[in-house]
Every structure is written in C-alpha cells, then in structure tokens.
## 1
Amino acid sequence: MTDGRNVIEIRGLWTEFPGATRNFVVHQDLDLDVQRGEVLSLVGGSGTGKTVLLRQILGLESPSRGRISVLGQAPASLGERGAASRVGMLFQHGALFSAFSVLDNIAFPLRELKTLPPELIRDAALVKLQMVGLGPEHADKMPADLSGGMIKRVALARALIMDPPLLLLDEPTAGLDPDSSDSFVTLLRSLHRDLGLTVVMVTHDLDTLFELSTRIAVLADRKVIVNGPPKQVIAFQHPFIHHFFLGERGQRAMELLREYPFAV
Amino acid sequence: MEPSTPRTEKQDAAGGASLRVLGAWTAGRFADARMYRSAVAALADAPPGAGWDLRDAQQIDHLGAQLLWNHWGRQWPRQLDAEPGQRAVLERVAQFTVDLPPRGRLTWAERYLGLGAAVVRAGRHVRGFVRLTGQLMIDMGRLARVPHNGPWRDVSGHLYRIGATALPITALVGFLIGVVLAYLTSQQLKQFGADAYIVNILGVSLIRELGPMLAAILIAGRSGSAITAQIGVMRVTDELDAMRVMGISHSWRLVMPRAMALAIAMPLISVWTTLAALGGGMLSADLSMGITPQYFFNALPAAASINNLYLATAKSVVFGVMIALIGCHYGLRVKPNTQSLGEGTTASVVTSITAVILIDALFAVLFKDVGV
C-alpha cells in the first residue's frame, strides 16, 4: 500500500466523541499523506482535532473509522519494544520523567532495551545532549531545575536518542520566550537537515510555522481543506485561512516569507 | 543471517588489511540482543590498525557510530572510507563524545556537614508542623468570630469522602476483628469456666482501645494518604501558588476544612467500628460458648463503664486532627516532581499511624484510672 515515499498515510479517517444527544464529529473522512523528509505543519482553530490527530498517529488513541499507517505499520504497533527507534515525540510540556536526571531521561529508551552496556548508553546520551545544544555540565541536573527552553531541548534529545526517522512535535515553541523560541527553531531546522528527519508538527506560532514548514495542512470543517507549500496555502480562499494568516499577526510573520526566499 | 545483521568482512588490500562494515548499525537493530552481540563480535575480530570501509553498510546511526568510535579508541582510524552522510554522523559523535566530570567521593568533612544538614531538615519539619498547628488554632479563632465565612461546603464534602465512604470498610474490618478476638478468647476462658467474662474482656478492649485504634489506622491509611496526594498534586500543578497569589490562605482553605471534617468524622467512625466489632464478638460468643446476645446486652453496661466510651471519643478527636495535620504537612512540603509526591505520601501514612499509636499510649498512661 505504501509507495515508499509516504511516511504517514491517513485514509478516510473519522473521529467521533460521544456527546449528550449525538456524537460530536471532529474528523470526517480525512485524508493526509506525509512524505519522507518534509516538515508538515498541522494548523487549525482550537477544537479542530490537531492534537487528537497527532495522538492517533502515535497510536495513543484510535480513530472511530479509517486507516492510519505509519512507516508502513499500524500505529498500535508503535507501543511495542524499541518503538523509540521508529517515532520520536516531543510533548508540549516536555513530559520529562521528573524523578530522573537529564542524562537518565535521555538514556531511558536505550537502557530499557537491556541489551547495551551502560558506558555506550552514557556516551550516546551525552552526544544527543550536546547535539541539542546543551553542555555536558547539565547532565546531572534534575528536570525541576531546568528552564522551559532547556526542558524542550532535553525532551528533544530524548525523542531522538534512537535516531527515529519520524519526529512529531506538539507546539514545539509554545511557552518559550522569543529568543529561546528562535534558537529552538534554528536547532530543529539544523537537525532536520542533518538527520534527514520527517517532521510533523502542530503549532500556532506563525514564526515557527513559516520558518520550518515545507508544507502546511490546514484542518477546518472536519477535514484537511488545503495541503501544500506555505505560499499556496495562503492563497487559498477560506475564512479561517484569511483570518489566521492575513490578520495583523500574520502580516508581520509573512515578512519572513518575502525576505528569505523559502528553501529546504 | 539476515542482510541487516551488523557484521564486518575482512578484505586484503594493497595497503594492509581492511574491514568492510555491513548491515544496519542502528539503535533499532541493537534492540535485538543477538544483533548487538554480532556487532560486538565483529569488532572484536578486527585486527588492530586495520582500515575501515563503511560505504557498503545499510545504515549507520549515531549509536552505531558511537560503537565504532569507542572501538577505535576515540580517534580516527588509519584509513576510513565513508559516504559523506556517514562521515557527518561520525564527526558529530567524535565532536560530542566527552567524559563526564567524575562525581567526587564525599569527604569526611562533607559527611559531617551532611549530618548537620539532616538535623536542620528535621528541625524544619518540626517547625513547619508547629507552625501549621498554630495557624490552625488562629484560623479556628477567626472562624469562631465569623462562622458564616467558613469553608463549610468543603467541610461537608470532606465529611462525606472521609467519613461516609469509609463506613463499609471499617465495619467489615471491625466485625472480623471482633469475631476473631471473641473466638480466641473464648478458647482460653472455657478452660477456667469463666465464660461470662467474655463480655468484660470484649467490652473494655474493643470500646476503649481496639475500636478507636482500628478506625484511626484505617483512616490514616485511607484518608491521610489521600490528603497528602491531593495537596501534593496541587503543588505539582502550581495550584497552591495560584491560591496564594489570590490571597487565599492554604491553612484556611485546605488544612482547616480537613482537620474539622476529620475531628467530626473520626469519633463517629470509631464508634461505628466499635459497634461492628462488638457485633462480631457477640456473634462469635453465641456460637462458641452459647452466650446469648440478650445476656451480652444486659451485662455490657456493668462490664465496661460509660467513661470508656468518653475516653475513646476524646482520643478519636485527637487522632482525627493529627491525621489531618500530618497529611497536610507532608502534602504542603511536596516538591514539584513525582518522586517527592510518592515519598511524601508514604511518609505521611507512616507518620500518622505512628502518631496514632503514640497518642494512644499517651492516653493510656494519662487516663489509667478512668473507666477500668
């Protein structure tokens, strides 16, 4: 079914939540493809089911109807052993294990394999820690002692510890100050380039959106109304897109598009 | 052998032996212990000073590169043939492989200071608890002046959760203890023909000691832990700080309602548990010695004076307040991480059960002339 280029394939997806009188439909017959090597951003108003879709891709929730395949497998199989080598997920608040130090957090997926010697795991975790721009002096800190930006970086290092080809990001820059946000976006872009990652992200931050995305998928009216490169999406006629991109905030962020010709 | 098995192949070239790295050297592959062993065996076979050829490898990720790099003694081999992508991965690994600064062993001076810190910590616990108790007194005084401003809805909610929902379990435990105690005692009493004294033994021991103690220990385990966990999670989610910036006192809104609810519920549950235990004892005495419930009821007032019940009730009020205060104390001291939450809840239950037993002993000594 998968032609080799699609990392994620979603076909005829329905998501319904039980309501008082009738079911509340979030997704109705939704189709979406994510191709290898691209950065796809999911955009939509609140309640359009962006995070639900992300959780369904991860196999944390299952859709009412329809089929999802991730790297040619059903999402449910992601819960199996060694899943961290297929998909990495950066949760909105980092979801670091608060009882573990930074290094133990990053090393956790490798340690749980129980096949590798501790020295190799420690070296690998230290490499990942420095790849996300943190020095080895932070290795022994506890998550409670980290700033918001550092938590995101450590969580990213943990998501990447087994070099998964697919990385999912939920609001990667939410809650960061503009400086940390910019440097985090730069980090994500360089990792995407160096590691050849496929990235799917949910974001509301227009700067992040335009700086990172190679494609944008807009969720509205319970399906993906448009899915294409940023410029094509902005040109699409729909009230949500008009409001989201061409409002005052959007105008400012769009300067980025004109100043830096888009390049992957 | 699968094509993705990480392995090497020796090759004799003009410049000396060279090794071709084959298969997938990735974390995903190494999840399989056999694959990791195969990679290690392949490296162990490698002659020292050999050249390396990575170009035919299926895939080498950072973990695979780390394995190679560590095998090379953290330096570049004499000769290396690699694709640009593989070289980039190796370069990142080479750049970022560092030794952690060793964690120094504690010196004696540091241990001595650590001991002092532990004493100071214990002192802070005591101070925190005294402050909490004092604050509760002040809040009770304030409540007495403006009773209509009190958090009554909270009190009634806690009364229901701590008191009403505990009735089935305390009754069951009390009843079973009553049955067992009466049965074991009756075996001894029969030998002396002192069957009728079962009423005295059960009356005094259950009403004065076992009923209140059982109830307090059950409630300490059930509600003391719940109080610590609730308040602790509020710390983890910043709710405690949110309350403080609104100018709402933790002690007024969190501690006082729980202390009041437990002070009211604890004696009631204690009496309820005692009744269940007496019921169990009565049944057991009837079955094993033929002492009728009729006789049991008639003999009870003479066997155990009413002062025992007053003492038990007073004791239970103190148990209730202590359980609430200890639960709140540990809850408020939880730090925002899961480890601390678990430790706090455990410490709360252990401390409150110990406190219940200590207070019980204290009451036994102080009121040794009452009711016996």
## 2
Amino acid sequence: MIRRFVRGILLLVTGVLMVSATQVFAQLTDFGAIGIGEGQTLELNVVAWPPDRATRRSAFATATAYRGRCPTRR
Amino acid sequence: MPDKTVSLQPGLSASVSLHWLALHLAAGQRGELQPMVSITNGACAATVEIYETVGGATQVTLPQPDRSLPGVTPQLGALGLAFGQTVRLNVVAWPPDPCAGTLQFLDKDGIPEPPPDKPVNLQAGQAAFLDLPAAVLGLTAGQRTEVQPVVMLAVSDSVSVCQATVEVFATATGRTRAVLIPQPPPD
C-alpha cells in the first residue's frame, strides 16, 4: 500500500517536471549558433506582440546571448 | 554574457548587445554565440543583428527562426563563397532533444567538398560546426563558387532536433558577412 502510494507520488512529480520542462522549452526562441568577429557587435531584439495596443498584454522576456558551446541551458 | 529581463507593453521593444571586445579574444579571433529569448508571459517577435561596433552600421540581420522539427533535416540550399572567406555550418541541439547527424559540404553538382564529413552527437544545448575555407578550394582573388551545406540526421530510435545556421565570414578578421537559416521543408 505504502509502496503504491510512493510510486504514485513519484509518477506525479515526474509528470509535473516533464510538463514544466515542455512549457519552458516551448517558449524558447533559439537562433542557433552565430559568430562575431573583430569590430562587430551582436544585438538581440524583442518586440512585444501584437504591435497594436488593442490587446493590453504584457510580455516578459529574458534575452540572453551565450558564448561558445554551451553544455547546458537554463 | 549579458542577460536582460524586460517587461514590455505591446508594440514596445528592447535589445541586449554583446560587443566582440567583451569576449576577450585575440585580434582576428571569432566567437560563436547562441542568442536566445525565453518568454515568461505573452508573446514576442525576436530578431538578431550584427553591426559594426564603430559607427553602428548594420551588416547582418536574422529573422526569428522556426523551431526545427524533430527528425526533419534542415534545408539550407546553396550559397556563394569567395576568396578570403570561410563558410561555417553550425548545428545546435534544440532543447530538450539531442542532435545526432553528419555535417558536410557539397559542391554545386552535389559532389562532396574536401573537408571530411563531421559526425556530431550533441546533447541539448551543445553546438558543433564544420568550416570550409575558400583557400581549401583553391579560390584566388575575384573567384567565387557555390557550395551546399548539408546536415544529415542520423538514423536512430531517439528523436533528433538539429538547429542549423550557415555563416560566411572573412577568414582574416572573423567578421561575419552573411548568415543563412533553414528554409521551410518542401511540401
């Protein structure tokens, strides 16, 4: 009985984590790898959508530029 | 690396910049980056630009890419390479999936170019690239040739998602001159 209960809790936690991970990655825009050389600057722009102000919805974005071969993502 | 959190009303925009100097590289060296936007709430349209640090003139712009589809080979088409330039084929394993496959360059007739094929087996977030310098093809001043960057996904039981980009840069300075992103797969 206890073993079944623990297994149920573990399955529930795993499910929540998987759903959370899917949601995070679904909202990720990844440009792939892009390089810059001497004298260049890379700029990442975001515009809150839609551009018309009919929908008063805020967008919270974290814009990040990573260097090199990132072994992990946030 | 710069990490900026913004809260925008519809129609407003924000940017985050990274100068080459901030990478602390030696002269002529080049740094590869993975620009990313993670959206907490609402919706955003994202773009990437590369501009001259001095003067601010825009040199390269990239639209927001589509998410690579699992198990679908990126369609990159062909692009030109001239004397003094290098073409670089990048792949990134799009989280949360891995990317397993082979990178290669073909000439305009579909024949493999000199750099040997590069097998890649990347975990989510990892990247790899294959370079083809014009010098390897024996191009001299004024000469130009077309090449086809190709990513072949490995046949495997696991899902593979390879986000590909192709860059052309000046071999001497590492300055990016053009970026190609995958085209939608043909119907």
